[in-house]
Write a structure and sequence with these properties.
Blueprint lengths: L1 E5 L4 H11 L6 E5 L5 H17 L5 E5 L10 E4 L15 H18 L4 E4 L4 H12 L6 E3 L3 H15 L6 E2 L2 E3 L5 E3 L5 E2 L2 E2 H4 L7 H9 L1 H9 L4 H15 L4 E10 L6 E12 L2 E5 L6 H25 L2
Parallel strand pairs: 1-2, 1-4, 2-3, 4-5, 5-6
Antiparallel strand pairs: 7-10, 8-9, 10-11, 12-13, 13-14
Helix pairs in contact: 1-9, 3-4, 3-10, 4-10, 5-7
Length: about 325
């Protein structure tokens, strides 16, 4: 299987590439960057080769600024864009990043028309919509990292709170990857037991925990300048699910056409069944009244931001 990473010279791009190199299902990895960053990613590829040798992994890694090298990619990961810095919101970088994502999406459609596009660039819900429209691909072939990372963060926090192995925590965050994300607390379970029936002692501050998830990225950025390992492993998790045709249900940013609460023409984080052909099905979900209200609010906000960005692009 061949995976290409556009924006491989950035911190998330190179970390994602390293994680993908470790996946046995990937035997061809292409690192794409601008011409002025080519030496940097050539150095990254040499460093990765040494690491893979230590792990007895055989893989072909190509560094390139030639978009023709995207040819025959099974998955193209777009991480290129203006990075979010301390104090910046995801929406502040929307318009400049939309121009970058739109350009690369058209290039992917030209050179690798049968690939799947995974969008990582923020604000990811809006950028997923941009990539979908600019590429002209079917909607099952274009989706974003979305709330998959948020779901992992909430899962990790719950595991720490209850001092239980993370594999026993089943939870999901949907909606916007940003301030308007919606944790599905009503369906969260621990070892198959609903959270409301498990946390009977009332010690869990779910509202406070959700605020930590919302601000997790900003907290890391304020401390070290950027997030990289969390997004990188979340990206590898999604790509691995696709290439191994695992049929897992993951929360990614997907184009909605009425499947959930009759919301249409917007990309939001929702649970989907993922396989070798991309999104096989958007999973309908039952939410409580507060969750439904929050999800509809997230849809309205993301749609408004998307329309503003699309107007600037004239796609």
């Amino acid at each position: 299987m061949k995976v290409s990473v556009i924006g491989a010279s950035g911190r998330v791009g190179k970390a994602a590439a390293f994680c993908l190199a470790e996946e046995n299902v990937v035997n061809k990895l292409v690192l794409i960057s601008r011409k002025d960053s080519i030496e940097k990613i050539e150095g990254e590829s040499l460093d990765m080769y040494d690491a893979m040798a230590a792990k007895d992994i055989r893989i072909s890694i190509k560094s390139s600024c030639n978009m023709e090298d995207l040819h025959d990619s099974d998955v193209v990961v777009i991480t290129a864009g203006v990075p979010r810095r301390a104090g910046m919101s995801r929406s502040e970088i929307a318009i400049p990043n939309a121009k970058i994502v739109a350009e690369y999406s058209r290039i992917v459609a030209e050179h690798s028309p049968h690939s799947i596009i995974l969008v990582v660039t923020n604000p990811v819900d809006v950028m997923t919509y941009v990539a979908l429209k600019a590429s002209g691909f079917d909607r099952n072939k274009v989706f974003g990292l979305g709330n998959h990372l948020d779901s992992l963060r909430l899962r990790n926090m719950l595991a720490k709170h209850f001092n239980i192995h993370v594999s026993e925590i089943h939870t999901r965050v949907i909606g916007e990857h940003g301030d308007h994300m919606v944790p599905l607390v009503s369906s969260t379970s621990i070892g198959g037991i609903l959270l409301k029936n498990y946390a009977l002692d009332g010690t869990i501050d779910m509202e406070g925990m959700v605020k930590k998830v919302i601000n997790a990225g900003s907290y890391v950025i304020n401390k070290k300048g950027s997030t990289e390992y969390g997004p990188a492993y979340a990206i590898a998790n999604i790509v691995n699910t696709i290439l191994n045709d695992e049929k897992k249900i993951l929360t990614v940013s997907a184009y909605l056409d009425g499947e959930i609460e009759d919301i249409k023409d917007v990309c939001l984080g929702v649970p989907v069944k993922l396989g070798i052909n991309g999104i096989e099905r958007i999973i309908p979900i039952k939410m409580n009244e507060n969750e439904t209200k929050a999800f509809k609010n997230a849809a309205n906000i993301v749609k408004m931001n998307t329309e503003r960005v699309m107007d600037s692009l004239e796609i």
